[in-house]
Amino acid sequence: MPYLIDGHNLIGQFPGLSLDDPQDEAKLVERLRGFMGRSGKRCTVIFDGGLPGGMSRSLSTPSVQVVFAHGGTTADAIILERIQNVRDPGSVVVVSADQEIVSAALRRRIHVLSPAVFVRQINSPAVADEEDPNPHLSPSEVQEWLDLFGVEPDEND
After folding, report:
1. Span 1-54, pLDDT tens digits
2. Which contacts of 35-39 are long-range, i.e. CB under 8 A and separated by 24 or more positions?
3. What is the CATH number of domain 3-132?
4. Residues 137, 147: Cα–Cα separation, whole Å
5. Best exposed site among 9, 77, 109, 133 by fewest CB in 10 Å?
6. What does DSSP say about strands 111-113 and 3-6: parallel, antiparallel, or unpaired?
């Protein structure tokens, strides 16, 4: 079940993260990558005002898509638009404390989690306990690691 996350709402709930930190978005994305990797889930996190705006190729991974609002729009407006365009409302979880977003999601019968509850889930040791001791990586995850570390696959393999 993919998550649609109001990024700055979530930053304010994470111990050790602060909206005053210029690296707050990157630090949140790092934590989301860890959780999504452990849980096998995916998310889209949307932040206000980033340059150049749109999807961040440098921060996004196959499991965490990072989007910055741009062109006079806001993260809330982007999230509201995405809520309206969800094809299968039962397959999405919205993470936000913004009342307009929460109301729009509930009207569409989309499950909503408060940022505080989501942070508890991320920090829960139960996720780690359920982790497969022999994780299996998809071909795209293997390629992501190879790209990250600059390793070329051996042609003899």
Report:
1. 699 999 999 998 988 898 898 889 999 999 999 999 988 999 999 999 766 667
2. 35/121, 35/122, 35/127, 36/63, 36/64, 37/63, 38/127, 38/128, 38/131, 39/127
3. 3.40.50
4. 14
5. 133
6. unpaired
